[in-house]
Amino acid sequence: MQTAGRALSFFTWTLEMQSDNPGKDNSYLDWPEETPGGERASFRWSQPGSNICLDFHGNPVNARLVVFSDGNHHMALKDCLDIFLEQNKDLSRIFYVTTPPGALLNILRNGGLHIGNLFIGVSPHVFISPPHVLDVLVAEGAMQTHRPFAQNRGIALLVKKGNPKNILMVRDLTQKNLRLFLPNPENETVSCRGYVDTLRAIAAGEGIDPSFLADTTGRGIVYGERIHHREAPQAVADDRADAAVVYYHLALRYIRIFPALFEMVPLGGAALITRPDPDSRTGKTHAGIVGDGGRWGTEFLRFLSSDRVGDIYTHHGLLRPT
Question: Are residues 44 and 109 in the same domain?
């Protein structure tokens, strides 16, 4: 198995990256600000090679609404939280987390987490994730029920601007020496399985040998470590992967915020045609209240079912649930 040539550790909360090319300058993607309501301190201190948090947003101290969410739709969630904050002037502070679901479950069960030497003791009022994850919370008694509010369009490929390997369809992923990025199969099992199953289904329908998805071919699968919605574009930008399999809405996000770096290759052959994930567990996004939801949890859950939120998620490349 070919792992990322650089130790990719957006390790759920801390990014630690070491170059495999001594003497070559590291180049880190300059992600846009995602704090709720644009709340920012006057002093900022971080170093992308060792200490930076991308999926913990806002100030957890005395936050009146805390939202835990899977991360692949973080851009749409951010817009929703901004509007919810504007509409509720007496809601003074929001804190939200957008890591993969496994990390969120562990944070909830343990009452917080360590980020390096920092401990954040926080629990959510609202938990957003695929339905099978929230079913676990219902079974554990942390949540009574949950409801759908968004659905993804399927998958696409992310490639470098100019598409130097001329990747236009799944068949092109079988070319010799092509490096394909996938989420870590152990740490992001559901996303990895969903992507691989979708690619296998397309390959079968087009008479393509699916062995390129295995590590026995020598063509190279570049696995991330823990947070593929940050790791995938970084791997392509660093030229450690020639293509990354991501949800359509993630590819759309990357080409919008990094237009000089990336292109999207829709697997259906046209700009808005994608291939749906055959695993329904990863297709829909649900939300539910944890405990009593506090003062604002129920209000925010109701807001997630509104047409305004549907429009926001549509803008970001997702669909209303069917």
Answer: yes
Q: Rounded to whole angstroms, how far apart are CA atoms 177 and 188?
A: 25
Question: Which residues fall within 8 angstroms of residue 149, CB to CB, at 6 or more apart?
Answer: 285, 286, 287, 304, 305, 309, 310, 313, 320, 321
- Residue 75 domain boundaries: 36-151+283-315
According to DSSP, residue 228 is labeled H
Q: Same domain, yes or no, for 262 and 166?
A: yes
Residue 107 maps to a domain = yes
How far CA 2 is from CA of 59, 72, 222, 226, 299, in Å, comes to 38, 24, 6, 16, 46
Residue 15 to residue 34: CA distance in whole angstroms: 17
Indicate which CATH number applies to the domain containing 70: 3.40.190.10
Q: Residue 56: beta bridge partners? A: 97
- For the entire predicted model, the pTM comes to 0.85
Please list the pLDDT of the chain residue by residue as tens digits (322 residues).
444 433 233 333 333 333 333 333 458 898 988 888 876 656 776 777 677 889 999 999 989 999 999 999 999 999 999 999 999 999 989 999 999 999 999 999 999 988 888 899 999 999 999 999 999 999 999 999 999 999 998 899 999 999 999 999 899 998 888 999 999 999 998 889 889 988 988 888 889 988 888 764 445 899 999 999 999 999 999 999 999 999 999 999 999 999 999 999 987 543 444 444 444 445 899 999 999 999 999 999 999 999 999 999 999 999 998 7
Task: Report d(CA 177, CA 170) in Å as an integer.
Answer: 15
Does residue 31 sit within a domain? no
Dihedral over Cα of 213, 215, 221, 225: its sign: positive
Number of domain units in the chain: 2
**Residue 184 CB neighbours (<10 A):** 20
Cα–Cα nearest to 231, from 169, 276, 188, 200:
188
